[in-house]
Amino acid sequence: MDDLACQRDVYKEGTRKGCPYPRSTDAFQNFVKERNNMKNKAISFVAWSGTGKTTLLEKVIRELKHRGYKVGTIKYDSHGFDIDKPGKDSFRMAAAGADTVILASGEKLAMIKRHDTVPSIEDILAKYFSDMDVVLVEGFKRSNLPKIEIHRKETGNSLICRGEDNDVNLVAVASDVPLDLDVPLYDIDDVAGITGFIEDRILRRAARSHS
Questions:
Q1: What is the second-level CATH architecture of the domain 38-80+116-209?
Q2: Is the separation of the CB atoms in 157 and 52 below 8 Å?
Q3: Domain ranges of the chain
Q4: Could you read off the pLDDT of 27-66 as tens digits, one per residue?
Q5: Whole-structure pTM over 0.90, yes or no?
Q6: pLDDT tens digits, residue range 145-181?
Q7: 91-122 per-residue burial string, b: 16 or more CB within 10 A, e: under 16
């Protein structure tokens, strides 16, 4: 459901089933503002399967943490998943039909939430990542988030974000071979350089916009 449809529902009848926005018009506007702000904190890593997205993400996360930032991550799973273990109380509660299950301890909190349709990346960011400095997203290649594409020659694939599908949201490429591009190119092993790009593109820009 888009923003305008939800806004009409809020004005007309409060929160309609399935609409994520609260009843208050002010709260709705604040949510939309936060939703837009969160898009400026996120960057998506995209690549063909087997290129090494997760390996590079792990290294960038460690480098960002080393530099003192709070880092969130989101991964899209098109195959479905189950993070709980059969036989555990929380698994049994979810299997019984609970729509939301939260596991909480002194160190961690995990939430399992059912939904009828895949929520937009913007809504996920606004609802769950407002306390993060930066959010690294794996996948969501059709989103409007800024993207870093990872490329390896051995895969034999062309770039996802260039060619037939020229994605204007591509902001950089990490590759193991030289490429002629209209965006910055980083060696796939240049973790410090890629992290510095994210730091300048996302974190410092956000800091300047709030100064």
A1: 3-Layer(aba) Sandwich (3.40)
A2: no
A3: 38-80+116-209
A4: 666 656 556 566 678 999 999 988 999 999 999 999 999 9
A5: no
A6: 999 999 999 887 889 999 777 899 999 999 999 999 9
A7: beebeeeeeebeeeeeeeeeebeeeeeeebbb
